[in-house]
Amino acid sequence: MSQQSNRDYQPASHSHPRFVNSHPASPAQSGDQWFYYFAYGSCMCPVDLKRSLGESTHPYVIGHATLRGYRLGFFRRSLFRNCGVLDVVPDPQASVEGVLYRLPMRLSDRLDQREEGYCHELVTVHQGDRSFANVRTYTVIEKTTEEHAPNDWYFGVVMRGAATCGLPEPYCWQLFYHMQQLQQRRVASPMQSAQR
C-alpha cells in the first residue's frame, strides 16, 4: 500500500453510519429461513458482499460483534485475489472483531461459493451483553505456516468494511498496522534477497 494511502486512512468516527439493524422479519412472518454469519475479512463490507451474493446485504447487517478465543491471520494465499487473505485461528488470549449478519438461507450456497477454500465453523459471538450461538463463520482449510501480505485492493475493502460497520477504533488501527507490516515485509524480502 502506498505511503500516501497509509496516511489517508481514518478509522470509524461518530460521523460514520453505524449498522445496528433490528432483525429482519422472523421466519414465521416471512416464510424464509435464516442463518447468522460472522464476517471478519472482506465480507465485512456489505458492498463487496453484494457483489458475490447478487443482492443488497445492508438490510441483513445486525452490526459489530466479537468472536472470543480466536485471532486473525493471513494464512491463505488466494489465487483469485493474488494475495494473502484473512483467516481466524484458535487463540484463547485473543478476540476478533467483525460484522454479524442475519442472512436468508437462500444465499447460503452463494456464500459458500465465495468462500471457496474455507469451511464452515459454528461459533458464538457477542454483541454487548447479547450472545449469538451457532453462528456460521469460515476458516481456511489448508493453512499456510507463514502469513501472506494482502494487496492494496483487499487492504482497502477490509478497512472500508471495518469502518462502515462501526468496529472499535483501536481494533481498526490494529488491523491497519498488521496489514501494513505484512506489505512492508513483502517489499523488503526481495530487496534483501537481491543484496545477497
Describe this structure in words.
- The chain has 196 residues and is α+β, with helices and mostly antiparallel strands.
- It has a single domain, classed as Hypothetical upf0131 protein ytfp.
- It is 33% helix and 34% strand.
- It has helices at residues 3-8, 27-30, 46-53, 108-114, 152-164, 169-195; strands at residues 34-39, 61-78, 83-104, 118-127, 130-140.
- It has a 5-stranded antiparallel β-sheet with strand order 1-3-2-4-5, covered by helices on one side.
- A hairpin with a 2-residue loop joins strand 4 and strand 5.
- Helix 5 packs antiparallel against helix 6 (169-195).
- The chain starts with a helix and ends with a helix.
Main attributes of the structure:
196 residues, alpha+beta, five-stranded antiparallel beta sheet, 5 strands
Using only CA atoms, what is the Rg? 17 Å
What best-fitting shape do the alpha-carbon axes yield? globular
CATH topology: Hypothetical upf0131 protein ytfp
Query: What is the structural class?
Result: alpha+beta
Biggest sheet, open or closed, and with what strands and sense?
5 strands, antiparallel
Question: What portion of residues is helical?
Answer: 25-40%
Mean pLDDT: 85
Instruction: State the end-to-end distance.
Output: 26 Å
Question: Going by CATH, what is the homologous superfamily?
Answer: Gamma-glutamyl cyclotransferase-like
**CATH class category label:** Alpha Beta
Q: Total helix count?
A: 6
Provide a compact summary of the structure.
This protein is α+β, with helices and mostly antiparallel strands and 196 residues long. Helices cover 33% and strands 34% of the residues.
